[in-house]
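Kindly draft a polypeptide, keeping tokens residue-aligned:

***
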Amino acid sequence: MAKIKLTKNELKAQRDALARFNRYLPTLQLKKQQLQMEMRRLDQAIMEKRDEEQEARAKLSSWIQLYSEPVDLAPFAEVSTLDTSLGNIAGVNIPVLEKLDFKPALPDLFDTDPWVDEGIRVLKQLTRLRVERKILEEQHRLLGEELRTTTQRVNLFEKVKIPEARENIRVIRIFMGDQQTAAVARSKIAKGKSA
């Protein structure tokens, strides 16, 4: 605890600080709750994307043996446009997926096997799911950092600043009360000596 002045001005400053802390604390607590709710929603969304990805991979395993010869499908599932914008949750700027397009490329129907079309479709689906999951994970990371900072501020106000201001007010009041009592006693002694 820092050394405080035992004056009326300091008492007013401590009362003002206590009022300010009590005014800001509910806002911080509300922000913390909002961030926690959003984090839970993001956790659920990330798990759903992972499940979708696992499901797509499971469906792929039934016919993947058709690709006994290596076939490069990457040129047919290449991303051409990946647009993100900034969203705002509780004052935190987060990336939001706006648009994901693939380059229009079709395999030569005479040179490729008929199941290549399905392979390209699944590869595009897996790429889309992976990009969506990465963006959700980035949102989660950014909100997690802000939640940590907000939690630290809430704890600082609740556990340090507000109790410290209350204690300072109490100490100053006691000192000023003692000073007032001593002044009354001195005036009575002075009055008694003069009479």
Observations:
- Residues 24-150 form one domain.
